[in-house]
Design goal:
The complex is a heterodimer of chains A (424) and B (194).
Chain A: H1 2-17, E1 39-43, H2 59-70, E2 73-77, H3 83-88, E3 93-101, E4 107-115, E5 121-129, H4 134-150, E6 159-166, E7 169-176, E8 183-184, E9 192-197, E10 203-208, E11 215-220, E12 225-228, E13 235-240, E14 247-252, E15 258-263, E16 270-272, E17 280-285, E18 291-296, E19 303-308, E20 315-316, E21 324-329, E22 335-342, E23 345-352, E24 359-360, E25 368-373, E26 379-384, E27 391-396, E28 403-404, E29 411-416
Parallel strand pairs in A: 1-2, 1-3
Antiparallel strand pairs in A: 3-4, 4-5, 6-7, 6-29, 7-8, 9-10, 10-11, 11-12, 13-14, 14-15, 15-16, 17-18, 18-19, 19-20, 21-22, 22-23, 23-24, 25-26, 26-27, 27-28
Chain B: H1 2-28, H2 31-34, H3 39-83, E1 86-87, H4 97-112, E2 116-123, H5 130-151, E3 158-164, H6 175-181, E4 183-190
Parallel strand pairs in B: 2-3
Antiparallel strand pairs in B: 1-4, 2-4
Helix pairs in contact in B: 1-3, 4-5
Classes of the chains: A mainly beta (424), B alpha+beta (194).
């Protein structure tokens, strides 16, 4: 019922946001097998002079990838405007554009969203960019299309931080959410791992073994690495408060116990968050930072618990199985994703906030772990060794549409950025 | 310990002997007194000088040999400690009987050789999450450290650190590899101030 209400609300927003084509009935309320009702959208190649050489993909190919990855659309590619095809595939809108090479070497991209039946221009935007910024501009246009049609922010302009093994050493990397535009962030000879995004995507916080023990470090993009909370001999598993930017992380005390601390990155001060005898790890904030999820072995096996932000009112969430770990709260607020180990294999599950309504998202495909929500809550990125080596994949929140976005050496432990504040 | 003393005594004896020889030489030879202004004098002095240098050389060499023997002995002990890993059962951090036997031997060395500073690294196999494995590695390294302290090793010389699944000893995803990777490993250094 909730779902229906939400979809209805969504439809309302849609009509409000785009009164010019209020007639579109994109939302068929059929909440059964799949959580997703994807909306077909026509993708037509840009008009472009042959002198333009695209780095990886042409603009319409980037748009098709964005559409299929988004969990909102299903791309209906067509060489040219084709009313018969669009009508058959129920694509009520299509995107296309025009690319021009300017005398200063830059590329002008005029991007359009049209209504298929009437060929009315619904929305258009123009970007003048360097050739290496084409993907970024197209992602931005796509997110604006999402906003026009859904009244919600899209994630095509977001990024992932993850860990790559480079010359035998784990390094922290970032890339666009689709795996393109990879960039190495750490360059140390010791392990760097567990990256998370600082508030506002200003930089990353991660674990480094610079002193031959796990400690927290921060880095701003293009900046220098700084040591965090060096009053602790060993710390790991940082999580960022989405409202305040405050960190919560595990500290290993002298008795070898992992305990949660809250700390301010700027002042370096930190206080014990929970006073429990058990090990506590893998903290994660709720979307409005009112609660914290964490893993505890107080019951004899690692299980997921939730606790209020003041450290009181602990409640257990997972009861099934003997190994439930690394829980993360959906940005939409209604689900928790976590990793469960059964028979030595790791798989990804979601459940409701009280631990009920468990849905297994991955199965029979190697180990699947380290799930991270897209900031719109529609997608989950994770790492899997299903193809032999660990690589990063994206799927919809119902487990469908699994797409690999990295290749080469080992890539794992993704964390999704927050929304980037781009132009609307 | 006994070996050190023996080596040191031997070293001293040889040094004394060498020193004695160089001192006596000018006295037993009357040549410089009878003909003090002959060129032979220079020859003789040269001889004495050569003898002196030789003895200083052998002294230094013996001292070096002693240190070298000591260092080799320490290195051998360090290697013994570093080669022997303590193994754990799956998802456990309590010490097995085998582990305790091995740790008693290590503790014996550490109690007697107080110059050693030891870091106990806790490691896990690749199964499970990165986060959980850091916590498990911490529990393993601490269990080993606690055992050594209980045996009488000074806790100030014992560090514990968790590597989680970061540094497998053996590559592979079978039980054989897992068993070798579930371990505590010792890293030994020698204190600068003796």
């Amino acid at each position: 019922m909730m779902k229906k209400m939400k979809l209805f609300f969504c439809a309302m927003t849609l009509m409000l946001a785009a009164p010019t084509f209020a007639a579109i009935d994109t939302i068929a309320v059929d909440v059964g097998i799949s959580v997703f009702q994807t909306m077909p959208i026509g993708i037509v190649p840009f008009e472009e002079p042959e002198t333009i050489k695209w780095a990886n993909e042409a603009p319409h190919q980037i748009l098709a990838r964005d559409a299929n990855l988004s969990g909102r659309f299903e791309a209906v590619p067509s060489e040219k405007f084709d009313l018969v095809l669009f009508s058959k595939k129920r694509a009520r809108q299509y995107v296309t554009g025009q690319a021009t090479k300017l005398s200063n070497g830059k590329i002008k991209l005029d991007c359009y969203l049209y209504a298929a039946e009437t060929k009315d221009l619904l929305f258009g935007e123009s970007y003048t960019v360097k050739s290496q910024e084409v993907r970024q501009a197209i992602h931005m246009f796509f997110d604006n299309v999402v906003y026009r049609l859904f009244g919600e922010r899209g994630v095509a302009s977001t990024k992932l931080a993850y860990v790559s093994v480079i010359n035998g050493v784990k390094q922290v990397m970032i890339a666009d959410y689709d795996g393109f535009s990879r960039r190495q962030i750490t360059r140390d000879s010791t392990t760097s791992t567990m990256p998370v995004w600082q508030k506002g995507n200003k930089g990353l916080v991660y674990v480094g073994y610079r002193k031959h023990r796990p400690n927290l470090y921060a880095i701003s993009f293009g900046g220098k690495e700084t040591s965090l909370f060096s009053q602790f001999k060993q710390a790991y598993g940082p999580a960022v408060n989405p409202k305040t930017g405050e960190l919560i992380f595990s500290v290993i005390d002298n008795a070898g116990h992992s305990e949660l601390y809250r700390g301010d990155m700027k002042t370096g001060s930190a206080q014990k968050f929970l006073h429990l005898p058990s090990n506590q790890l893998s903290p994660s904030w709720s979307p409005f930072a009112s609660e914290v999820l964490f893993t505890s072995d107080r019951g004899g096996s690692p299980q997921v618990y939730a606790v209020g932000r003041d450290g009181t009112d602990v409640r257990r969430i997972t009861f099934m199985g003997h190994y439930n770990e690394r829980a993360s709260w959906s940005p939409e607020g209604d689900r928790i994703v976590y990793t469960s180990m059964d028979d030595g294999k790791m798989n990804i599950y979601t459940c409701a906030l009280d631990g009920t309504d468990i849905i297994q998202l991955t199965s029979n495909a190697g180990n699947n772990e380290h799930p991270t929500w897209s900031p719109d809550g529609k997608l989950i990125a994770f790492s899997s060794d299903r193809g032999g080596s660990y690589q990063i994949y994206i799927m919809r929140k119902d487990g469908s549409g699994v797409t690999r976005i990295t290749n080469g050496n080992e890539n794992k432990s993704p964390t999704w950025s927050w929304f980037f504040d781009g132009k609307k | 310990m006994a070996k050190i003393i023996k080596l040191a005594l031997l070293g001293t004896a040889v040094a004394l002997f060498a020193w004695g020889c160089s001192k006596e030489k000018p006295e037993t030879d009357p040549a410089p007194k009878t003909a003090p202004e002959t060129p032979a004098d220079t020859t003789l002095n040269l001889d004495a000088l050569v003898a002196d240098t030789l003895s200083a050389d052998s002294l230094a060499r013996l001292e070096a040999e002693r240190l070298e023997a000591d260092r080799a002995r320490l290195e051998e002990m360090i290697n013994r400690i570093m080669l022997e890993d303590v193994y754990f059962d799956y998802d456990r951090s309590d010490l097995t009987e085998n582990a305790k036997r091995l740790l008693a031997q290590v503790a014996e060395i550490l109690v007697n050789e107080t110059r050693f500073i030891v870091t106990v690294e806790g490691h896990t196999d690749e199964r499970g999450t990165e986060d959980y494995n850091i916590s498990l590695g911490a529990r393993r390294s601490t269990a080993v450290r606690d055992f050594l302290i209980a045996y009488g090793v000074d806790g100030n010389r014992l560090m514990s650190v968790s590597y989680g699944e970061e540094r497998p000893k053996v590559q592979g995803s079978d039980e054989n590899a897992f068993a070798k990777n579930r371990r505590a490993h010792f890293r030994v250094s020698i204190a600068n101030n003796e």
